[in-house]
Amino acid sequence: MFEIFPIRALSDNYVWTLVEGEQAIIVDPGEAKPVLETLNELKLDLKAIIITHHHFDHTGGIQELKDQFNCDVLGPGGGHIQGISSPLKDNEEFELLGKKFIALSTPGHTLDQLAYYSDEACSEPILFCGDTLFLSLIHISEPTRRYAISYAV
């Protein structure tokens, strides 16, 4: 089972960190520095990075972390996010350190948004949803007519 904790990044973001033994997986590294400091302090080896969507505050640290750890980077396909080595699509299952996850398309905040669900990674099911959900609201930064109509109802 993973231990999960946040690493504070930028002014108002968190990089979720999943740890098992001396191995780590991170979600949405908006910047590399706090992640590197934490991984070094805890003597962790970064095995994978998961990306929920293309905004800079979720992707800004990819390249530096990937260069230092030579880790896999999973995220939305389409070739628009620099550094993705394993593009994912809706309902695609994958494993991280032997735990099954599924990628779920959750467009709204961005059109490429993926959330990641697992009922194997922890004692309770987990979902990493990026910016799909905020406290008390759904944030749409790339609205289309279809989404505007569906969310206005």
Question: How would you explain this protein's 3D organization?
Answer:
This protein has 153 residues and is α/β, with parallel strands linked by helices. The chain contains 4 helices and 10 strands, in the order βββαβααββββββα. Residues 136-153 have low confidence and may be disordered.
Strand-helix topology:
Elements lengths: L2 E7 L3 E8 L2 E5 L5 H10 L2 E6 L5 H4 L2 H8 L2 E5 L9 E3 L4 E4 L2 E7 L8 E5 L7 E3 L16 H8 L1
What would a concise description of this structure say?
This protein has 153 residues and is an alpha/beta fold. It is built from four helices and ten strands; from the N terminus they run βββαβααββββββα.
* Uncertain residue ranges: 136-153
**Structure summary, number of beta strands:** 10
The average pLDDT is: 85
Derived structural class: alpha/beta
Residue fraction in strands: 25-35%
- N-to-C SSE series? EEEHEHHEEEEEEH
Shape: globular
Number of helices: 4
- Report Rg: 15 Å
> For the largest beta sheet, what order do the strands appear in spatially?
1-2-3-4-5-6
Question: In this structure, how is the largest beta sheet organized?
Answer: 6 strands, mixed
- Fraction of residues in helix: 10-25%
Distance between the termini: 41 Å
What are its keywords?
single chain, 153 residues, alpha/beta, 6-stranded mixed β-sheet, 4-stranded antiparallel β-sheet, 4 helices, disordered C terminus
